[in-house]
């Protein structure tokens, strides 16, 4: 569901490249985070962020001619994936001027529409780096992760997402020698949707069978997708929020083709290696319509900043146990707020467990792909290996973000269990509308902390 677009003009064309260009320097904006051992006992760590390579200018190695312009490949430079990887270089990014990305201390602000000198940028996707050439790997089993977030400027149709994916720490350079850019240039993305819009996968261009998007002038889809397990800690605007676990049968980032990708367009959504729907906890969808929203009449008032705490509990409360529960707490105006109980299928829940997932899928009439692909046990194994932190802001050219904040799917009655997900009208969320009406939209993530369960909470 993480589809983002980039509007390009003049001489610039943005794509993922595998060689390293020299036309613009790549300077990673710093972002501090904290590692905690107990409440009030946290140490600051200096990290940095890197822009996903799909946003970057890609050109011939020895010049400025574009390899990809608008939503089309230059077939003379990219007749096939291997040749394209040899011909094309990936360049550095102007984070503020071109992409509207601002970091200061422990705060990261992502602007929605940014009008740069050569282009207008829509949204962004960034990763947290441990060093200049490696992503930071988070191992969160029997641990918790917290951050502050400001979604007050995110209307219907937008999604400020903070999540973890099973990417390679080096961005794929060790597995795929044709990828010379690596994590330093934001390569190697994957998620449970097995996206086909990545312009390079496994160090090769995804130009084979490339189909330019009919409703997005800067995007398209290739023959291959890129799959991996995904833990959506946070997908939200000011109206609705959800946290969702997705698992895949494959280990680590894997390129897919055919049925393994689970493509919607071929009616194979539930046949691929990944659970695309995931097991989600959206308070509104679960019947709690007063928990999250703009104004003091909601438990969490989205006109103000708040803290989100996610705990990954094991069956024996040790690092060696198996993940058994994903628990959510909130802090706003100094008050710790527990997720409220919801009733699904005659049972009461306030967290994500295998029992919750199974009960919810049955009650909502959804395919239980989460259980079929391993459920919490599979996610537990991935958490042991470590996952990369992703922070993004995007609009949805597929279904207008209705799956998050409105009634979805549209062919079911809004009164059917699980269909109503928020108060946004079903006519909302069209990218052309949100981009023109809300160019100043933004999301701010700050005060990222991690450590043993309870350690990031107030003293």
Automatic annotation (TrEMBL):
Record region (Disordered): 414-438
Protein's GO biological process: cellulose catabolic process
A molecular-function term among this protein's GO annotations: cellulose 1,4-beta-cellobiosidase activity
Keywords linked to the UniProt accession: Carbohydrate metabolism, Cellulose degradation, Glycosidase, Hydrolase, Polysaccharide degradation, Signal
Signal peptide: 1-17
Keyword set includes Coiled coil: no
InterPro entries on file: ConA-like_dom_sf, Glyco_hydro_7, Glyco_hydro_7_sf
Entry similarity comment: Belongs to the glycosyl hydrolase 7 (cellulase C) family.
Name assigned to this protein: cellulose 1,4-beta-cellobiosidase (non-reducing end)
Protein species of origin: Amphimedon queenslandica (Sponge)
């Amino acid at each position: 569901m993480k589809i983002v677009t980039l509007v390009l003009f003049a001489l610039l064309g943005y794509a993922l490249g595998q060689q390293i260009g020299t036309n613009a320097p790549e300077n990673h904006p710093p972002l501090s985070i904290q590692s905690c051992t107990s409440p009030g006992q946290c140490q600051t760590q200096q990290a940095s962020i890197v822009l996903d390579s799909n946003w970057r200018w890609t050109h011939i190695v020895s010049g400025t001619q574009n390899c990809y312009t608008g939503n089309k490949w230059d077939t003379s430079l990219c007749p096939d994936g291997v040749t394209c990887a040899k011909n094309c270089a990936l360049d550095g990014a102007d984070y503020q001027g071109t992409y509207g990305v601002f970091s200061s201390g422990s705060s990261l602000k992502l602007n929605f529409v940014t009008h740069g000198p050569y282009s207008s940028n829509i949204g962004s996707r960034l990763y947290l780096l441990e060093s200049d050439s490696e992503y930071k790997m988070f191992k969160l089993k029997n641990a918790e992760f917290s951050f502050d977030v400001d979604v007050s400027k995110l209307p219907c149709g937008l999604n400020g997402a903070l999540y973890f994916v099973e990417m390679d720490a080096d961005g794929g350079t060790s597995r795929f020698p044709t990828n010379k850019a690596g994590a330093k240039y934001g390569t190697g993305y994957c998620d449970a949707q097995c996206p086909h819009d990545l312009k390079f996968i496994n160090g090769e261009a995804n130009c084979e069978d490339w189909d330019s998007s009919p409703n997005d002038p800067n995007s398209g889809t290739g023959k291959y997708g890129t799959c991996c397990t995904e833990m959506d800690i946070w997908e939200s605007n000011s109206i609705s929020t959800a946290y969702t676990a997705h698992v895949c049968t494959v280990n680590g980032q894997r390129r897919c083709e055919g049925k393994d990708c689970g493509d919607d367009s071929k009616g194979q959504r539930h046949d691929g290696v990944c659970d695309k729907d995931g097991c989600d906890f959206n308070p509104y969808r679960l019947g709690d319509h007063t928990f999250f929203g703009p104004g003091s009449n909601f438990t969490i008032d989205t006109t103000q900043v708040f803290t989100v705490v996610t705990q990954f509990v094991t069956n024996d409360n040790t690092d060696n146990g198996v993940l058994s529960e994903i628990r959510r707490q909130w802090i706003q105006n100094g008050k710790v707020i527990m997720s409220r109980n919801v009733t699904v299928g005659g049972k009461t829940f306030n967290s994500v467990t295998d029992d919750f997932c199974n009960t919810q899928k049955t009650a909502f009439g959804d395919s239980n792909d989460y259980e079929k692909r391993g459920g919490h046990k599979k996610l537990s194994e991935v958490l042991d290996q470590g996952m990369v932190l992703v922070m993004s802001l995007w609009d949805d050219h597929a279904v207008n973000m209705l799956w998050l904040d409105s009634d979805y799917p549209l062919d079911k009655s809004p009164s059917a269990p699980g269909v109503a997900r928020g108060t946004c009208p079903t006519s909302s969320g069209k990218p052309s509308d949100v981009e023109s009406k809300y160019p100043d939209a933004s999301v701010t993530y700050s005060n990222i902390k991690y450590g043993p369960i309870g350690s990031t909470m107030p003293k």
